[in-house]
Each structure stands twice: as C-alpha cells, then as structure tokens.
C-alpha cells in the first residue's frame, strides 16, 4: 500500500522561498471571541450563497458524478448549517479545535494520540474526525479509543489526484456540520505526531498573543487578548517547478479562474480558521479546474495547490504563510520527506523538531515509521507532553 504522506510530499518544498505572512493589519473588534468570529463571518456570506443555491449547470466530472453529487449535498448542508449557527452560536461555551485525520492505513500512533487527548476530554476543547480510505482495510478503533465512532463517510483516495482534496473537504464539512464550536481545523495524517500537550496546542492557537509572529503585534500585547486569528497554511509563490505544475492539465486550462500569477503551492497539512474552512467547502469555481485530471502524474499534486491558491486569492492577509507541521526535507528521495525510524526518536529530536522560525514552536511533526510508536510511548510524558 502506498503511503498517503508520500503522495503529499513536494519535491520543491526544501528549496522554495516561502510567501510573506508578516502583514500587520489588525482588526479592531470586541474581545469577546465568539461574537468577534461571527462578525468576521458576515462579509463572507456572499461566498456561502453558491453553496445553498443549486448550480445552474452540471460541472464536468472526472471524479465519478455520483461521488461528486454525494459530496455536493454534504458541502451544501454544512454551509447552510453554518448560516443558521450565525444567529444561534453566541451561546457556544468555547472555541474548539477539530483534529482532522486523513489516512489510508491504520492510525499507527493512536496510543500516542490517546494520551494527547486523554486529560482534556472533560473540558471538551476538541473534536476528532477521521477520513479513512475504505479500500485500505483499516481496523476500527476499539470502544474507549478517542477515535471510536469518529470515522466519517469516506471515499477512496489516491496519489496525484484531486481525491485528496475531496477527502479534506469532506472532513471540513463533517466538522462544520457536527459542532458550531469547531473553530480551528487541523489536518493531520497517520504519520503525524503531536510535539506538545493538547493544552499547549490549545493555548497557542486560541489565547496566546505571542505564538504567531505575524500577529504578535503591539496592539495584541497591549490589550492582552487575541484580536485576530489567522490560518496556518504554507503559501509558496516562487518555485522553479510551479509553471510545470500549473500547466499539468494543459496550458490554458486553468484560465480564466486561475491565472499563473495567482497559482500557489504549499503543504496540505494546515490549520484553518472556520471562515476559511467555509470558503473551502463553498468553492465551486476553482474546484472545477483543480479536479480535472493531469497529463503527467509527476507534475500534478493538486492537494498541494488547491488550498493555498484558493485561500490566498480570497484572503491572503488572513494566512500566516507557514505551517505548524514540521517536516524534514533533507535527503528527500522521490519526493518523499525523511521518514524517521525508531533509532532516531529521542527527546532531543522532539526539541529539534519544535524549533520554528515563524511561530514559537511547531505543534506537529511528520513523518515517522509505524515502529516508532514504542519509543514515543517511552518518552511522551517527559519529552512531549511536559508542556
Ligand atoms: C484485513 O485486515 C485483517 C486484519 O489485519 C486481515 O485479517 C484480513 O485478512 C484483511 N482483509 C483483506 C481483505 O485484506
Ligand atoms: C533530517 O534528515 C536527515 C536524513 O535525511 C538527518 O540526517 C537529519 O538529522 C534530519 N534532521 C533533523 C532535524 O532531524
Ligand atoms: C531558520 O532560518 C535560518 C536562516 O534562514 C535557517 O538557516 C534555519 O534552517 C531555519 N530554521 C528552521 C527550523 O526552519
């Protein structure tokens, strides 16, 4: 079986220059987080309308029409429900993080994630959703596992195809439908591990005014509250291979929706805020281009282009331009990042993986071979979850 992660990896990422992300614009808004979020959602209502009204023409299909229709109905339901939540969610108790696992094999590190989520279950700071490739014979988690009952209706995924985009959109839609308090949406795979405790992750994303260097502004510091939320997604606008990837479906195919100067790349392991998650599930116009098949598999990685292109076209200022998932591109083979084995796993490795130039720390890391689990379980309490 092919690893999902390897299909996501980019040969370019080690040497491409990263996009900006240091914009300093701050919204002036009430510190009451929920109402603030709602306010932010209003300007984007127009984006939701296409989701609620049926499309005038059937879109050209490369993914099977039945699958596409199936997805459309879920995406529409999710966006419609988010509209109704606009008026009712002011009573939400707290913002939650939705952890979205995209996998085509067993969740090798589920005992590690079990510990990660363990202590905070009662405080309900999070929700878990799993998209598991139904063709992969994945064993269902036992009752008592945090993953039990968290599998969403899923479809087959495959390398260099838009099916990974569909899978991610299904996860986002499921999470939006499931709980109006889901505010951050973090995409992970079975080869990812946490680099900190859930409490640290929650604090960094939700309350910290210093975690994200692009919003650690004087204003936030002065008020002592988080005034603004960004999506943590890599946005790469310069790379020698970008042109080849742009024309992978034909030279003029992406026009007029996506001119080359709007085409972006980035890892598909990102953490989106709710309004960006909504934009993604509502999009029809870019999707109808990105879902077209490529001529060549080795230049096609739609899942690495669709999200950064779409979001930077509609709201570049709301994106950090960097990801929270550490990955090691040194010695990359065949577009696969370095896969750590058990002999490399140590508290020092965790320390090294945390170091980021963009935020106070990376929060997650990939990619690790399944037999690293025992080693992780030895070091978790002292080296991973100590903060
Ligand atoms: C699925 O996995 C189980 C346990 O890992 C194995 O016993 C079974 O033969 C597998 N089924 C198929 C169709 O591969
Ligand atoms: C990255 O991977 C290379 C092997 O490809 C390894 O030598 C190096 O130590 C790794 N870097 C980190 C920070 O783990
Ligand atoms: C941080 O930036 C420096 C200088 O560009 C670079 O050498 C270093 O590898 C970067 N570290 C990380 C963790 O990305």
Automatic annotation (TrEMBL):
- Chief location of this protein? membrane
Location in the cell? Membrane
- One MF term in GO for this entry? glycosyltransferase activity
Enumerate the UniProt keywords alphabetically: Glycoprotein, Glycosyltransferase, Membrane, Transferase, Transmembrane, Transmembrane helix
Read off the InterPro entries from this record.
BC10-like, Glyco_trans_14
Q: Which residues cross the membrane?
A: 32-57
Q: Which domain of life is it from?
A: Eukaryota
Bilayer topology reads: Single-pass type II membrane protein
- Per the record, GO CC terms? membrane
Map out region (Disordered) in residue numbers: 1-20
Cite the Pfam families for this sequence.
Branch
Bias regions of kind Low complexity — which residues?
Answer: 1-11
Q: What is this protein called?
A: Core-2/I-branching beta-1,6-N-acetylglucosaminyltransferase family protein
